[in-house]
């Protein structure tokens, strides 16, 4: 797993959802100042940062799969750019590769979703770029929710599940058929069951989608993945 260096929530989420058969090995990557609000330009720059050193370090583990644990970096590239990024990552790593943005798209297709309420801890411009990404991929974004005051990377990771739920409940989700919570450093996995109960909608989060797709590709059990996403496959 390639993980942004400020991220403190993806690894705990992975531990919650991992079956015994899986081992996860992490290399951290940088590319943006931690004290500033990460915007569209910073995320595009991160997506263009060389991963050669990180992949060299990971290669010693002999990975069966490489995952890119940042959503906004490849959201900034658009669906075609995200797909090209994943293909290049696979070539460079010498094994299959998954991006978080690509996993979200795969999850939405698995659920048969069309109309998205898009939720982020990003600023307005980066949230809009994420919405445009989904639109370009064929989905309709009917609502957006993001913090009224822009957050630094560290502050995004500090949002509590209760605060995330409050943000979403205050928004207009009535015309959506799915909630998408974007960001691998947002504590969204902990909110999935509560949000599905309160809103009646299936929930797709960055970490849940990434992990679900990872497990499917490795032919491992998805029983620990919360929400309708994993249950719909079982049904």
From TrEMBL:
<protein>
    <submittedName>
        <fullName>Aspartate/glutamate racemase family protein</fullName>
    </submittedName>
</protein>
<dbReference type="Pfam" id="PF17645">
    <property type="entry name" value="Amdase"/>
</dbReference>
<dbReference type="InterPro" id="IPR026286">
    <property type="entry name" value="MaiA/AMDase"/>
</dbReference>
<dbReference type="InterPro" id="IPR053714">
    <property type="entry name" value="Iso_Racemase_Enz_sf"/>
</dbReference>
């Amino acid at each position: 797993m390639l993980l942004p260096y400020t991220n403190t929530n993806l690894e705990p989420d992975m531990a919650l959802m991992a079956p015994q058969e899986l081992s996860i090995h992490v290399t951290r990557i940088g590319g943006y100042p931690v004290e500033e609000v990460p915007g569209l330009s910073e995320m595009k720059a991160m997506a263009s940062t060389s991963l050669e050193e990180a992949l060299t370090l990971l290669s010693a583990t002999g990975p069966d799969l490489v995952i890119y644990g940042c959503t906004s970096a490849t959201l900034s590239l658009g669906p075609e750019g995200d797909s090209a990024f994943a293909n290049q990552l696979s070539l460079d790593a010498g094994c299959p590769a998954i991006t978080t943005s690509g996993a979200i798209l795969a999850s939405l297709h698995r659920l048969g979703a069309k109309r998205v309420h898009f939720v982020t801890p990003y600023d307005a411009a980066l949230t809009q770029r994420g919405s445009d990404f989904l639109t370009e991929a064929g989905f309709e974004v009917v609502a957006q929710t993001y913090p009224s005051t822009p957050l630094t990377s560290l502050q995004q990771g500090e949002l509590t599940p209760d605060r995330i739920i409050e943000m979403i409940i205050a928004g207009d989700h009535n015309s959506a058929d799915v909630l998408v919570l974007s960001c691998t450093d947002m504590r969204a996995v902990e909110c999935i069951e509560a949000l599905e109960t309160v809103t009646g909608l299936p929930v797709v989060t960055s970490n849940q989608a990434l992990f679900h797709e990872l497990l499917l590709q490795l032919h491992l059990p998805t029983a620990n993945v919360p929400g309708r996403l994993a249950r719909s496959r079982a049904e």
